[in-house]
Amino acid sequence: MSYEVIVIGGNFAGLSAAMQLTRARRRVLLVDAGAPRNRFSLASHGFLGQDGRAPVAIMGEGKRQLSLYPNITLRDGKVSRAQKEGDEFVVTIEGGGEERAARLILATGVSDTLPDILGLRERWGRSALHCPYCHGYEVSGGELGILANHPHSAHSAMMIPDWGATTFFTQVLFEPDEEQLARLTARGVRIERSPVVELLGDSPKLQAVRLADGRTVPLDAIFVAPKTAMASPIAEQLGCAFDDGPFGPVIRTGENKETSVKGIFAAGDAASSMHNATLASASGVLAGVHCHQSMVMPPAG
Fold this sequence. Notes:
Layout: E1 5-8, H1 12-23, E2 28-32, H2 55-67, E3 72-76, E4 79-85, E5 88-93, E6 97-101, E7 103-106, E8 110-113, E9 128-129, H3 132-135, E10 143-147, H4 153-159, E11 165-169, H5 178-186, E12 190-192, E13 196-200, E14 208-211, E15 216-218, E16 221-223, E17 227-230, H6 234-237, E18 242-244, E19 249-251, E20 264-266, H7 277-296
Helix pairs in contact: 1-2, 1-7, 4-5
Pfam families: Pyr_redox_2
Domain FAD/NAD(P)-binding: 3-126, 181-284
Keywords: Flavoprotein, Oxidoreductase
């Protein structure tokens, strides 16, 4: 084998996993398809030491630091297939042949499917946002909305008033129950039952939303949780088990970040329902550390 570990994915999780293994002096290949989920955001926030930096700049610096170690290979490319052959994993890279390793780390991420509303996609990551902890401070003090598109939307709406005056758009999909309505009212959240049909303003800025009944509601930002799907078919190809998350499937892992397939570890958004730069990086560290330990410590029993 040319490599001991192949890391698939070069965002925060994959880079963090690769750093642990590289510093453990293992021969590592990191393959990055170059389409990170956070590519639509101008800045990453709440990430200690990196607050306000562009995600592409953070990843670029991470790759630069990794490249200083002699035992890692960084390769741009898309992994189209992976399979297990005996004690090895064989990875096929589009236009780059095959590579083999004893371990794999999947940091392949997820893709987002947004509600089909005019003007939403071009504002994604700018004024149409997924996480108040990641972006709430930057829009605080303005008129904020939350678009109900999943069963936990009312819970999310209860948090948003800490950042600004909040309107909860039920979209005729997720009407709050009696208890939720009481809590939303106590938090000062306005309830709007006419669906949002269009986002208005000079994109990527948001000035208002148009409702199905023709009215417009002034807004500076709107929060929406997209449905997610695996950004890569590799985990499924390898036979990894999945769990149903609130927004989409996630790769099942144990506390050591190992998947249901021995020798394969997973980290980042593909393996967690909580999506955040710091959490992705931390999960990558765990995956890298436990992957290394799996190579040097025999299994108990």
